[in-house]
Amino acid sequence: MTRPRAVRLEAFGAIVQLERPRALVFVDRDYARGLGHDGGALWSRPGDDGAIGARPLRAPLEAHLQLTNRCDAGCRGCYTAATPQGAAGEWGLEEWKRAVDALADAGVFHLALGGGESAVLPWLGDLARHARARGLIPNLTTSGLAGLDNLLSVVELFGQINVSIDGVGDAYAATRGFDGFERADRAVSRLRRAKKEIGINVVVTRHNFDRLDELFAYARKRRLNEVELLRFKPAGRGERVYSELRCSDEQHRDFLPTVLKLARRHRVRVRVDCSYTPMIAWHDPGTELLAKLAVYGCTGGDFLIGAKASGVMTACSFAAPPPGKPPVDAIGGYWERPEAFGAFRTWRDAAEPCRSCPYHELCRGGCRVVSAAAGDERAPDPECPRVLAHRAGQARRVSLPVLS
Amino acid sequence: MKRGRILAVKWGLNPNSSSLGVDVTFLLFGAAFVSLVTPMVGALLRFRRTPK
After folding, report:
1. Complex ipTM, two decimals?
2. Which of A64, A107, A186, A216 makes a 20 to 30 Å CA pair with A37?
3. How many CB atoms lie within 10 A of CB A392?
């Protein structure tokens, strides 16, 4: 396999990719010079040196490609509203290879492949192989409910594979609306026998929040390398059941100490999605620490982009396509446009309490998709504990029960 | 020449096709641990220095 892209120069300096340990390292200009790189005209503005976020990156770090919207599972909260028929005008292998070429030319490091259920696609391995040949690392999420043999035959091509499991045993059905745990568990076991870098994705709802302990224990028992926790979003079929499944405000406030306690108890690494940054910031871990760990809120249309099964580019997988519906293989011509990705890039024009929040440079106002569902995609995330406290006229509660 | 700074490290690979996953496990150990790890990352970068 071709080695992954090593370095991408940025206005602030550079991003360097490490293979082992797997990391993207953001360095300032002097550091990049020390590694033998020179940004030339890109480094002409002194104020940009070391300032991640001062302007959008030159390209996303990762692209989230919904290779198909076909899926038989019928999860009641599916954010893509996937169906057994899929979406109209879905792209095939040749179109996605062209997209991978465009993303590679732009300087993207990683792909996150999903669906629908992408594991059933007979050309999944061809696409992953093509991504590798162009220096990108493909990663994948699967339900584990279909396409397992196909996936196992190409498992070595992927950097990380996660299986979506929202509960152990009967708790699975409480979120998804059907009992698929045994099949998903079988997939986890078989994938883990073939590969070390296997984890689970967990959509956190008010029904499984109190049972997260079982999921961490499960990950430990199956010797998985990570648990990734995802906030439930009001998108696709999820919009209809959002008020029923979204976590309560109290659960959001308890989120960080709860998951860190579980990570420590079960010795499992934990990843959280970008929409949880307001819930992390509530505990005031320090802006410098979050910046060092690259904990950012909404970086749609900047650190990441999405693409629908029809190839249309979006700021993130939950977002509606921008005007003109640019295809993802046209990223080179779209990225630098002043109006690109609309509200996703105008986060600096925030209302209070975001405007004066010390975490705003990192959090960027929380999840645009949750804000949009509440009526204004430019408004502060209405579920942010700081926003709720501000609206209630309360002082923020300082609580660092786990952090040392 | 100034040595420069490591600004941030984004750990791991994100398989989730719906959002930017970030590893927060290090929050368990706090800023001191990150300060210890950063020089080690720097050593790896310089050791594995790659051509332009």
Report:
1. 0.93
2. A64
3. 7
Nearest to A95 by CA among A72, A116, A123: A123
| Cα A223 from Cα A193, distance rounded (Å) | 10
- Residue to substitute from A292, A303, A305, A328, interface B, most B β-carbons within 10 A: A292
Q: Does B39 touch chain A (CB under 8 A)?
A: no
Give the chain B residue nearest A79 (alpha carbons).
B18
Indicate yes or no: CB of B21 within 8 angstroms of CB of A272: yes
CA distance A4 to A399: 41
CA distance A294 to A52: 10
- Tell me whether B10 touches chain A (CB under 8 Å): yes
Nearest to A300 by CA among A281, A278, A331, A275: A275
Q: Are A287 and B30 in contact (CB under 8 A)?
A: no
Verify whether the Cβ–Cβ distance B25 to A141 is below 8 Å: no
Q: Are A272 and B24 an interchain contact pair (Cβ–Cβ within 8 Å)?
A: yes
Interface residue of A15, A16, A303 to substitute, partner B, most B CBs within 10 Å? A16
Contact list, A317 vs chain B (CB under 8 Å): 17-19
The answer, yes or no, to whether residue A75 has pLDDT greater than 50, is: yes
DSSP secondary structure letters along A272-311: E-GGGHHHHHTT---HHHHHHTT--S--BTTTEEEE-TT-
A 10 A CB-CB count for A348 gives 12
pLDDT tens digits, A277-295: 999 999 999 999 999 999 9
The pLDDT of A94-106, averaged and rounded, is 98
> Could you count the other beta carbons within 10 Å of the beta carbon of residue A18?
17
Is the pLDDT at A157 greater than 60, yes or no? yes
Contacts of A318 in chain B (CB under 8 A): 18-19
- Cα–Cα distance for residue pair A185/A145, rounded to 1 Å: 9
Interface test with B, best of A264, A289, A318 (most B CBs within 10 A): A289
Alpha-carbon distance of A179 to A328, in angstroms, equals 35
Q: Which residues contact A46 (CB under 8 A, 6 or more apart)?
A: none
Residue A395 above 60 pLDDT?
yes
Distance from CA of B43 to the nearest CA of A (A): 11
Separation in Å, CA of A342 to nearest CA in chain B: 18
Tens of pLDDT, residues A322-374: 999 999 999 999 999 999 999 999 999 999 999 999 999 999 999 999 999 99
A2: helix, coil or strand?
A: coil
For residue A401, is pLDDT > 70?
A: no
